[in-house]
Write a structure and sequence with these properties.
Structural class: mainly alpha
Shape: elongated
Helix content: over 70%
Oligomer: single chain
Distance between the termini: 72 Å
Number of helices: 11
Largest sheet: none
Amino acid sequence: ENLFDFLPEGKRVSVLKVMTDLQTKMAEALAGGGRPDPRIIAKAQKEMEQAVKQMLTPAEALDFDLRMSMTANSLRTQIAGFDPSEEEFLKVFQLRKPFDDEFSPMLRANETEADRRRREEAEKQLKEQIKQSLGPQRYAEYERAQDYSYQQIYSSVKSAELGTAAANQVYEMKKLADEQARKIRSDRTMTAEQRTSTLNAIRQETEKSLQGVLGEKGWEQYNRPMNTRWLNNMTPAPRPAPTNP
């Protein structure tokens, strides 16, 4: 299916021409070697979107954004496991798009301190708007889906052909184990040996529970160093004793 099948043929040809012109400009900017200036890329991208939308009706422009914009594409990759309805996706998209347009990730390397503070304040407002739009429970699930550790869990669970519910269970187990371990490490009434023993017990029980939820195939997919670093960090190997010179 062509990405622009929603457009009449005449508009489709015009849109493709504008986008091809942008690709040509990008190629020319990169031809000199070295690192391209992200400000130039962001400016060209913005000009392309403005030129395209001048040809489109509001409904067509929204369709274009939902198919081609950085916001829509990044949102799709960040909310695996959130499983939004069409209405929820549109709500979040329409709130995030103006923020992304003003505070493009491409420009963050060149931010001034004032720019950073302004972006962070706008981001707080954006999160509150999304929370109000989705409601507290769905917002919590939206936030969870953007947690890198959840994304790792979800990817492993999906590879093992398990559902979102299994990913959610594993994530909650991780949160609980991390919290238990944090409390043990900060408990100064325990000896070092008691802390180590208790942390080992938490790790063993957590690993057993994970295997119970994931099954053999799921545990095989998840039990990789990148995924289980948090388990290994729970009971790090003791430092070797210093040797006498």
